[in-house]
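User: Can you predict the 3D structure of ABC transporter ATP-binding protein? Sequence below.
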Amino acid sequence: MSQPFLNLDRVTKRFGGLKAVGGDDGLSLSVTEGHLLGLIGPNGAGKSTTFNLISGVLKPDSGTIRLAGAPLPATKPDRIAAMGIARAFQQPRAFPSLSVRENVMIAPDNPGEHIWAALTGRWRETDRGLADEAAALLSVVGLADRVDAPVSTLSGGELRMLEVARQLMRHPRLLLLDEPTAGVDPKLQKRLGALLGELKQGGTTIIIVEHNLHFLLGIADHVAVLVRGELLAEGPPDAIRRDERVIAAYLGANHAA
Ligand SMILES: Nc1ncnc2c1ncn2[C@@H]1O[C@H](COP(=O)(O)OP(=O)(O)OP(=O)(O)O)[C@@H](O)[C@H]1O
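Assistant: Sure. Here are the predicted structure tokens for ABC transporter ATP-binding protein:
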């Protein structure tokens, strides 16, 4: 059996004494390389906090998070990003006046010179490879016909797909997706599902927080159910669908599953 690529070992996080992640023993969770983990649970379950801990926005009160065996440096988002972890936010941090393609070209950890080039319109001939890669990624996420459009003209669903393309431009080893299907039409959702399958085949590890259970349970290898910061259940999608505790605590209210 392959070793876990990402491992949370007895991780806890509290806000003002209130437990957000991890019970008495902390939250322990693993993801295998090239697998897709679905993180689900009711509002306030601790899903976003877990993402914030993995991406280094928050520091665990206790416990360790490891990537390929190496402990992640807490509250060092830039260093964690450089280790190959990319997070696609619900609201992309895009430049509205730049084109869709340029926003992908200046993906977060590209050198500042690319941002300068985009803002002044002075891309160099040598940036062509970057432009071609951005266009290819945009085609993959279903935005081929929006490549040269200003970002301000995109719909909410298209913005989500742009954010996915922006993060993929960084060739992450671990991709965190925060509710990627919200506001995305069924055609683009289908494309996203196929893309995630291809990324996994290429070895990318993916964690998705998603309320759209029909989508998530169709693509996940493994599902973890959080309730009040604790792991209620984990397992393959079929086992999660049938788990009486999960149905009572969460799925009962989500008939889409
Ligand atoms: N910065 C913060 N300060 C104080 N409390 C917080 C903070 N962030 C989260 N919490 C609390 O931690 C708990 C877990 O919140 P979190 O946002 O992680 O849940 P979630 O599962 O992502 O919920 P949702 O599905 O609504 O996004 C909640 O009780 C929330 O109110």
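The pocket of adenosine-5'-triphosphate is lined by residues 15, 20, 41, 43-49 (CB under 6 Å). The first strand starts at residue 4 and ends at 15.
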